[in-house]
Specification:
By secondary structure, the chain is an alpha+beta fold. It has a domain of 89 residues: D-Amino Acid Oxidase, Chain A, domain 2 (2-Layer Sandwich). 34% of the residues lie in helices and 28% in strands. An eight-stranded mixed beta sheet has the order 6-5-14-15-16-13-18-17. Strands 8-2-1-12-20-19 form a six-stranded mixed beta sheet. The chain has a three-stranded antiparallel beta sheet with strand order 3-7-4. Strand 10 and strand 11 form a beta hairpin. The radius of gyration is 21 Å and the shape is globular.
């Protein structure tokens, strides 16, 4: 159904490149408009969980992923100040190790760009779209040049111009009272491929190795009253990060001592877009549809799922409006659930006394009694396979 269909994708991030690849592989003529002068993603690591890895496999990118990512052995929750283990999600034991990957965001973007170009996608760089106007029979893009577009996919992130054109949301984004630092440091030796979450009163720090163990990703979150701007590219003094986590254990102190450059951003709670499509003319994907807090490591995975379902629904019927309505129906409930769970996780990570030691003790006891139970509770998330549902 997609052969010969012209589709324009706004944004060259994970959602945009994955959607472009999925659509082009089904025969669509796809153009990606990316405002940056080149497709390059600096920054930090991404956890690709099994639900996202299944999409990359279906797009023919499993070997490419293996070449740049580390298969994760486990996710560990640790007591930040004391350093001791609280709970371990053993991915190997539960059969998820081969589908859970630790990858640098830049490497994932490069992988997806190669896949899109190989599928015949035309990627236009330096093309910023300032406004989108959706009419009953067309979509008009206004930017540095003026383009008339057919079907438009808005994968243009948090501040999506297409989301704004579709009505945005009833509520303005709300500052959560949390800020996050992001850094990548050099690593030595052969660190275990484990994603560690060090939890403390009012703060937590996530870390895992990247690029074959040559680098280490750090994301550290602190509760504070002071507002910080949203966005990943605000520089901060590493000493502020070190002071915020000065009471954490020696392992964390060793990592933070090696931080030379760090970015800081405010964490805002956005509602899931109430409307994901306009007839058969336009649709949202990725963060444009459902921005999420980072506490379930699902932003990129949700984008990959969106890409596959969107392409599959459009390919299943010649009625674009029905296909986009089916796409929204298939994705909205799951997106809302993930966004809500991510918000709850922040509260659980930041417990203070007297609840914190009690909660940690209960987690340890529960893990001894039923070691597989914590990970089984995530089967709804990791076991989801959008590639087999169409």
């Amino acid at each position: 159904m997609l052969k010969g269909r012209e589709i324009t994708v706004l944004g060259g991030g994970v959602a945009g490149l994955a959607a472009a690849t999925a659509l082009a592989r089904r025969g669509a003529g796809v153009t990606v408009l990316e405002q940056a002068p080149e497709i390059v993603e600096v920054g930090a690591g991404i956890q690709i969980s099994p639900n996202g890895a299944k999409v990359l496999r279906a797009l023919g990118q499993e070997e490419a992923l293996r070449a740049v990512a580390l298969p994760a052995e486990a996710v560990e929750l640790r007591d930040g100040p004391r350093g001791g283990a609280v709970l371990r999600f053993d991915l190997e034991r539960h059969g998820h190790a081969s589908g859970y990957w630790l990858v640098h965001r830049a490497d994932l973007i490069a992988l997806l760009e190669r896949a899109a170009r190989a599928a015949g996608v035309d990627i236009v760089l330096g093309e910023r779209v300032h406004r989108v106007a959706v009419a009953p029979d067309s979509v008009q893009l206004d930017g540095t040049t003026r383009r008339a577009a057919g079907l438009v996919i808005g994968a243009d992130g948090l501040h999506s111009v297409l989301r704004a054109a579709l009505g945005g949301g009833a509520k303005a984004p709300r500052f959560t009272g949390q800020v996050a630092w992001r850094a990548v440091i050099p690593e030595a030796g052969a660190p275990a491929a484990v994603a560690e979450v060090h939890m403390g009163p009012g703060r937590h720090l996530v870390s895992y190795p990247l690029r074959g163990g040559a680098a280490r990703n750090i994301v550290a979150v602190e509760e504070r009253r002071g507002w910080a701007a949203e966005g990943w590219h605000h520089h901060d003094d590493p000493e502020n990060l070190r002071r915020a986590f000065a009471r954490f254990g020696p392992r964390v102190q060793d990592w933070l001592a090696r931080v030379e450059t760090v970015n800081l951003w405010g964490l805002f709670r956005h509602e899931v877009a109430p409307r994901w499509h306009a007839g058969g003319q336009a649709a949202l994907a990725g963060d444009a549809a459902h921005p999420t807090l980072p506490f379930m490591a699902q932003g990129a995975n949700m984008a990959l799922e969106d890409a596959w379902v969107l392409a599959a629904q459009l390919d299943a019927t010649g009625d674009a409006e029905a296909a986009l309505a089916a796409y929204q129906a298939a994705r909205m409930g799951r997106a809302r659930r993930i966004v809500a769970v991510a918000e709850r996780n922040a509260r659980a990570y930041h417990l203070r006394a007297p609840l914190r030691p009690l909660a940690h003790a209960l987690l340890r006891v529960g893990a001894r009694i039923a070691p597989d139970a914590p990970l089984r509770r995530l089967d709804w998330l990791y076991g989801h396979d959008v590639t087999r549902q169409m």
